[in-house]
Amino acid sequence: MAASPTATLLLSCPDQQGLVAKIANFIYANGGNIIHADHHTDFGAGLFLTRLEWQLEGFQLPRDLIRPAFGAIAQPLDAQWQIHFSDTVPRIAIWVTKQDHCLLDLLWRHQAKEFIAEIPLIMSNHERLGAIAQQFGIDYHVLPITAETKAVQEAQQLALLQRYNIDLVVLAKYMQVLTADLLAQAPPIINIHHSFLPAFAGAKPYHRAYNRGVKIIGATAHYATQDLDEGPIIEQDVVRVSHRDGVRDLIRKGKDLERVVLARAVRLHLQNRILVYGNRTVVFG
Amino acid sequence: MAASPTATLLLSCPDQQGLVAKIANFIYANGGNIIHADHHTDFGAGLFLTRLEWQLEGFQLPRDLIRPAFGAIAQPLDAQWQIHFSDTVPRIAIWVTKQDHCLLDLLWRHQAKEFIAEIPLIMSNHERLGAIAQQFGIDYHVLPITAETKAVQEAQQLALLQRYNIDLVVLAKYMQVLTADLLAQAPPIINIHHSFLPAFAGAKPYHRAYNRGVKIIGATAHYATQDLDEGPIIEQDVVRVSHRDGVRDLIRKGKDLERVVLARAVRLHLQNRILVYGNRTVVFG
Amino acid sequence: MAASPTATLLLSCPDQQGLVAKIANFIYANGGNIIHADHHTDFGAGLFLTRLEWQLEGFQLPRDLIRPAFGAIAQPLDAQWQIHFSDTVPRIAIWVTKQDHCLLDLLWRHQAKEFIAEIPLIMSNHERLGAIAQQFGIDYHVLPITAETKAVQEAQQLALLQRYNIDLVVLAKYMQVLTADLLAQAPPIINIHHSFLPAFAGAKPYHRAYNRGVKIIGATAHYATQDLDEGPIIEQDVVRVSHRDGVRDLIRKGKDLERVVLARAVRLHLQNRILVYGNRTVVFG
Amino acid sequence: MAASPTATLLLSCPDQQGLVAKIANFIYANGGNIIHADHHTDFGAGLFLTRLEWQLEGFQLPRDLIRPAFGAIAQPLDAQWQIHFSDTVPRIAIWVTKQDHCLLDLLWRHQAKEFIAEIPLIMSNHERLGAIAQQFGIDYHVLPITAETKAVQEAQQLALLQRYNIDLVVLAKYMQVLTADLLAQAPPIINIHHSFLPAFAGAKPYHRAYNRGVKIIGATAHYATQDLDEGPIIEQDVVRVSHRDGVRDLIRKGKDLERVVLARAVRLHLQNRILVYGNRTVVFG
Q: For labelling alongside C75, which of A249, B128, B194, D244 has CA 20 to 30 A away?
């Protein structure tokens, strides 16, 4: 693991000759040392997608000129791109309702330094998990939501995201549908769905999995979009079940999946390893 | 593995006291030695489900009296039950269309003695796989099917099942929907579906899995019922895919799943380890 | 799930005719309703192994006569057996050193009611995890161990197990070898080893797995015995790694395995689903 | 999938600045279009490892000058490298003893066009599998091996590899130890070991796995080296087993693993996705 700060470029653009060379030359010409690079071409979509990480030590461009300088290269390529600096620590808000397993798991991993991030804010539509927030020294805001108050409360939520300077929202079993309005204005949002999507999208997936008699259940982490449970999938995992497992057992086994799948997705996002295009993701492993 | 022949009872009935004792006593009183027994209670359904296997050597009931004698015990229990003798070798018909991977796999396993069964018949709606049948010395019947000929051809299919004395039909990538009529008259039918049901039921599951951007694909073996892809699930398995996998890769990886999932399901059926109730299965492992 | 209290019998004995009937009759004759029963015959070892669970409501034998009455049946069978009552809640001691992930996981699961047990005691050879014990309201005893003090401290440990009435010890990353003496006097002890045993038994398994270049790592929960890392295996699980994973990544991924594998093993033990014979386990699923 | 021929570079060298740029420029300057590129830095070993694939259509260097031209770039980098052209089809020899499952699986996949390769030669120390070779129209050479004849027969084996122009040897359950001499002169050799290495290296792994009471078994494909079962691991996979599985069941389940793990390893090798360094592999996914 490189101790010195790094820059990470995520870029997608129409495929053409010389893309790797152009980007690598930009870094090399400025004295950067590439430590990870991964490129993918989606021939069907005609897209080139890449992730490059290089050491900033010895890089001759001043920090505030890196993005403008790269922009000059990216523009003729018709590219979509982001550059992240590893010493700019992202700030996470976790949204919950009443279930604590994903929240606790995220906080424990944060404490164990699995996530390079700050978690200054937990929001909920219920009081219940306030004690956990307090124990970890994190602000806890309760915004109960009804059909009538939804618009007002979402405005509050957005205001909090701004006030706390939030870069990523993690829905850790937040059992509310988000409006298109909120999604348009919020930073990226990762959700955990308690099924192997697209199977059992919607409500009560474990009950439906039990009734269908499946032999394997799953969990899915995805970016939240306007179409419920239809956003780009980041990570999935599964576990075997048998006729001996009732709905309660499915829920219990599923919780273990939800925790680990959500944590992996958050970690991949924080490491800038995910590129979304269309409704798909490239996850640079 | 017991070398001497065994009898296997599969039974389900409304739960009540003394069921294990009653059944075990029937076997013990007649000098049978139970070598496997597994019971399950589905409290929600109020059902007791069991599988018992005992050695026939030393069993004092003549073979042709075992079923009638047990019937007298089962009737007051309002039970559904079957008794199978391990030396009565079941006969399988395999139905295929054009893909050979599941067919070849089943035939190899049969040759390797993984299945205690005979395979006297392969049916197809295409000529293509006839050479394989010939190579393994198995009769191959071609019954092309169109909307107009379906009724006539299904009658032919049923006639062949009768003529060949078939106990189990295995749909090894047979790409035709079966009518309710045929299903009502045929022996049990196991189908392999190339997705992790209920995700991607219906046509072209790998294309749809690719488009949805899932990170895991699966295959499902189930008993065929009138509701396409809705029958009781016997076995499922999955494999990871990534953004580097195109549709062709999904198909290739999926084939490996289809082979092994179908083979496991056939083996479980042949060992009389599966009890169907409602739309669910108990698989006695 | 049955709400009323149940009794669970775990029994192994030399195989002979009529075992299922004899045991089932004992329960039926006394008015018990069997809700789970699973039998296994190990033909190589000539052993019959069984687990039966029945409802105590309506069972006509007084609680304190059940074991003596069954003993009369078991003795001529030369059986080893235990009977557990579901309303006698087992008491767990957790032993730790400095790592908190397994400890926290066990305590959360206990809080979430995944374990029917009490956890009155945490022991460690270090101070570090005392704050966690305090937060969960559990007594924390520190017994530092050196080569010189080992004998004295183990005597202390045994005394504490007695004083707290402990039924099960869970080594949640307790990095000390236990002596034969302690093992002989302690209740059952479950250990988690951070490798896919028997691969990488002993120290620093993740470093050795990295150096060997394996593509999959694992974790193993087993009963502790005198032969380090050689005890009967209860549960194992694995996860894929790649060349991109350094030793730290292996450790991080391994922690997730250790947590879940240890938790499953503890749960199986608490549900009296494990029978040890020789150096093997039967796990009644 | 690109239809036009491609070149693939596999390279490893001491890490330094500008490596990606230098290599990408070589391709770009000659009019090549990179379709896949993946780089990895092993910081511990101080090594840069890369795989690049580019389209040869439009590439301005004549085919026979590509290697010399790249050599001029590689030499100052102190690099180890290979360049493969996708239209130069590699030739495989399969070595077997008596078991047919891996052989049949490889031949079926070859027929199904999963491998871009030719398989002109099967060698064995037994007659048994000759009929399969004949059925697939492949030459079959029998070279029985005893302690006395080993040296002579290995010379024969090497002569056959030369005569058939073999690029890759696949040991598909070839139950003979290879000498250092043969290994030094033969092309790359892939072996399948029927255990999750390093567990149960050596003989009779399934019997030993059964005796140890493991809950998961595995298979490992690796390059053959002088140290038996110690070569660089390419691929591993696992499957769950239970107390109900006897040694025969382990063998049966293991066969399914062996087939698929060996096939994946062969495919990865044929796609030039594997870089060996030290005793480890980088597998560019």
A: D244
Same domain, C193 and C273: yes
Tell me how far apart the alpha carbons of residues D274 and D263 are, in angstroms, rounded to a whole number.
14
pLDDT digits (tens, 9 = 90+) for D62-82: 999 999 999 999 999 999 999
C-alpha angle with apex A26: A25 to A27, nearest 5 degrees? 90
Q: End of a domain among B51, B67, B85?
A: B85
Q: Are strands C91-96 and C80-85 parallel, antiparallel or unpaired?
A: unpaired
| C2, pLDDT greater than 80 | no
CA distances from D217 to B117, C238, D117 (A): 27, 11, 31
Q: Is B229 a catalytic residue?
A: yes
Residue A1 has pLDDT above 50, yes or no: no
Distance linking the first and last C-alpha atoms of chain C: 15
- pLDDT for the residue B228: 82
- Judged against a pLDDT cut of 80, whether residue D1 lies above it is answered with no
Nearest-Cα distance to chain D for B99, in Å, is 10
DSSP letter assigned to residue A251? H
3-state SS class at C24: helix
Domain shared by D81 and D147, yes or no? no
D231 in the same domain as D106: yes
Residue D1 lies in a domain: no
Of the candidates B181, B229, B237, B256, the residue annotated as catalytic is B229
Q: Are A107 and A189 found together in one domain?
A: yes
Q: Which of D211, D212, D283 sits opposite C243 (nearest CB)?
A: D283
By the 10 Å C-beta count (0-12 exposed, 13-18 middle, 19+ buried), B280 is classed as: middle
pLDDT of residue B2: 46
Tell me the pLDDT band of A2, cut-offs 50, 70 and 90.
very low
pLDDT band at residue A3 using 50, 70 and 90 as cut-offs: low
Residue B1: pLDDT above 50?
no
Residues C16 and C73 in one domain: yes
Token digits for B158?
């049923």
The runs of H, that is alpha helices, within D137-246 are 150-163, 180-185, 205-212
Answer yes or no: do D39 and A40 touch at CB < 8 A: no
The pLDDT of residue C3 is above 80:
no
Mutation site for C-interface testing, chosen from D216, D217, D230, D237 by largest number of C Cβ within 10 Å: D216
Same-domain pairing of B95 and B19: no
Count structural domains, chain A. Answer: 2
Q: What phi-psi label fits residue B145: left (phi over 0), alpha (psi between -120 and 50 degrees) or beta?
A: beta
The residue segments making up the domain with residue D54 are 6-85
Same domain, C50 and C100: no
Q: Which of A200, A235, A243 sits opposite B215 (nearest CB)?
A: A235
Residue D134 and residue D62 share a domain: no
Exposure string over C216-228, b if 16+ CB within 10 A, otherwise e: bbbbbbbbbbeee
* Secondary-structure percent of chain B, ordered helix, strand, coil, rounded to 5: 35, 30, 35
Buried b (16+ CB within 10 A) or exposed e, A140-164: bbebebeeeebeebbeebeebbeeb
Give the A:D interface size as CB pairs under 8 Å.
Answer: 69
Does the model's pTM come out above 0.90? yes
DSSP SS3 for D281: strand
Closest residue in D to C201 (Cα) is: D199
Report the CATH number at residue D193: 3.40.50.170
Interface of A with C in 221-240 (CB under 8 A): none
In a domain, B81, yes or no: yes
Domain-terminating residue out of C85, C112, C128:
C85
CATH number at residue D33: 3.30.70.260
pLDDT, mean of residues D106-114: 96
Q: What is the pLDDT of residues D18-45, one digit of tens each?
A: 999 999 999 999 999 999 999 999 999 9
CA distances for D76 relative to D8, D28, D37, D71, D230, angstroms: 20, 20, 22, 9, 33
